[in-house]
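Async update (no meeting this week)

Hi team, since we skipped the sync, here's where things stand on the single-chain job. The sequence we agreed to prioritize is pasted below, unchanged from the tracker. I ran it this morning and attached the output directly underneath so nobody has to dig for it. Comments welcome in thread, and please keep replies under the output.
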Amino acid sequence: MFHDQRFYVALAFVLFFVLFGRKLWAAITRALDARAEQVRSDLDEAARLRREAEQMLEAATREREQALEEAQALIERSRTEAAQIAENARNEAQAVAGRREQMARDRITASERAALREMRETAATVAVDAVRDVLTRHLAEDHGAANAFLDHSIDALPHALRASNETSNPGGQHAA
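Output:
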């Protein structure tokens, strides 16, 4: 056994591990512990980054939903305003059409009044001319009837003037 080479190799191996094993073991465990600590810190960092990413995703989702809600509200407001503008325009157009129609009616009424006044004036002028012609012929032939007609006209003049004033002053006030 002591002469066998394997014995000395085994003895050297055991002595090597006994003498240097603690230092080697400590170095190996320190390296493994450091690596384990590095892996733990990497995992913690990854978890923190994941939480931040999830928070950022939630914030982005909320902002997107808020932007969509604002866009919908803006669209609804725009539609409402467009409807109001259209309604106002329609009402304004109807009002303008009504005013123009009333103006046309007023013009027609004024034209009718002017035509009636002109017809009355023309009829009165024609009647006065006809009476003048008839009276001139009749009175030229009969002087006694002319004097009687003149006397009767002079007697009826105050009554005719009073009637004329009452027609022009409907409140019953007489002109001075």
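Quick observations from my side:
The chain has a mean pLDDT of 86.
Residues 5-141 form the longest helix (137 residues).
Reply here if anything looks off.
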